[in-house]
Amino acid sequence: MKEHMRECVIEYVIETSLPLIEVDENGNIPVMTTTQRNKASVMIRNECADYDHGSCLPLGCKCPQCNSFTVLCRYFRHVLLKSGNIPGAKTLEAEIFKGKPVKTCKECGRPFIPKSNRAKYCHNCGERVRRQKKAATMRKQRSAAKKDG
What we know:
Blueprint: H1 2-15, H2 34-47, E1 51-52, E2 55-56, E3 61-62, H3 74-80, H4 89-98, E4 103-104, E5 111-112, H5 123-148
Antiparallel strand pairs: 1-2, 2-3, 4-5
Helix pairs in contact: 2-4
């Protein structure tokens, strides 16, 4: 059974026109944790166009991505994970491929990849909060200058 699944995956990879899955500097395919795999399985069951009651339609056998901790499926990698319409897809992609921790924005509550360990806000909210704090500081300085002068 496993040999048949491997042959199906190889045929599918050769036939698809999607780009290859990225590998690290040692040539290893990214590996997911148990929680990431569970999130991926739920996403595949709910959103994958090729998934049909446990089997992969193009392969004609059991879905290899749902049963593996490595990222095997090009459709999962390049369509589902990159989709902006699927909730949690971008976060899962960041967790698996960026290897960086994902934080939650204090302002809007959306997950984001911080550029430093001190980041509290996503890019959009960070700019807005910075402008608000700068305006508050300037108001405070102006009111202090009026009282003195």
